[in-house]
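Section: protein folds

Sequence with per-residue tokens
===
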Amino acid sequence: MEALLATLPAAGGGAVVAAAAVVGLAAITRVRMESKKRPNAPPAIPGLPIIGNLHQLMEAKPHKTFAKWSETYGPIYTLNIGALPTVVLNSTEVAKEAMVAKFSSISSRKLTKALSLLSRDKMMVAISDHGDFHKIGKRFAMMGLFGFSAQKQFWDTRKQMMDNMISTFRTSVIDDPHATHDFRKVFRDELFRLSMIQSLGEDVSSVYVEEFGREISKDEICQIIVIDIMQCLSAVDWRDFFPYFNWVPNKSFDTRVTTTEARRTVVMRALINQRKERIESGEARVSYLDFLLENSTLTEEQLMMLVFEVIAGGTETTMMTTEWAMYELARNREKQDRLYQEIQEVCGDDTVTDDHLPRMPYLNAVFHETLRLHPAATLLPPRFIHETTTLAGYQVPAGTEVMINVYGCNMDKNQWEDPEEWRPERFLDSKFDVTDMYKTMSFGAGKRICIGSAQATSISCTAIARFVQEFTWRVREGDEDKGDTVQLTGYKLQPLYVHLSPR
């Protein structure tokens, strides 16, 4: 608390700070007093006056603390992180109740400052409220990119992406059979290429950005509109916990987020304008941007954000899952051999394609077990209860935040045996339908299910199978237990380096 107060302006604003503090603390006290009077409330995590449970969540991985608390307090409980009470859900059953059965009461998003700024105040389908913009954006994405006919249009491009990666690895092995290979670099480069072609109609090698006064390369484009944004999304601002102090500056946070957002905006604008010029010159319309320009009356800002969303999401989230899958297979030779045997039985001498996937249950199990143990998002963006409802039999009042702990759901010992182990065989159980892509919470559920899940599954599963079909994988010596993540994300902390042997 002393550190928090030390960040408040000291000169000339003492009376204002004191007045704001009184108002804010009074509001916090009122909310908590009302919650204590409420009958049939979820269990509450004991905390301190004013700051609630904030001091217990100062580590970089609160999702693990939430999961541990669920062992004592159950799958649903209340805590206070600053001003408002928050209900945390740590089981698949309760999470699905919130996302499906009680969706009408819990359909609004509660964003952090970083998410709000980087999404231009919810101007992205994945984190927008369930209103007109969400419905329109979702419909456009399905018709212009993720639907069957749109996916079929880019089948050859996805196949070329796979061939390019195999060729890159094969050339590296020939050049130096004992070298280690940076999996992330190769896979991200090809995923970004695919995302650019699908979204903008071409593999953009460079673009002139007027605000920079120069042309920037493809690597710089990826860094600015994907990597920097994804890293910035996890930025934490203490004002998120104490909204009564929103007027207090947090210069380092504000500068980082606004600079990252501004750079993303000018690069995206340059890319879109470059594509418009190519269309005006008579080039065929084949991309998601082309579809949006033809079929919508979106503002320039909405257009930019919808295109940005599919580029960033199509690159990083698929990369994360596939990298984790190859890490686990590379350090579990027995499971890698089992997958290779299935590939041989199904494909023989043919190269793995999307058509083979329905006949490969163990590959499906590898994919879903990786999503379970290594979800791309350990905590879903908070939701906001706008009308009093019940969850797991408890009454939860309007004005409460709901936080779904995906990590906690997927580590629930009541549902998963030895959940800390990577064990694909668990998904071969007859209780799991092979065609069900939502065995874990990783894709969400209900009306807010990830619209890109089918493409992500197809790309990741085909890539995993192609990699194992072509090479034997082994992690770099000393990296066998490097399974840590970047703060509260599912992002692998250290890139995957592997030794490859052609089969």
Q: What stands out?
A: The first strand starts at residue 76 and ends at 80.
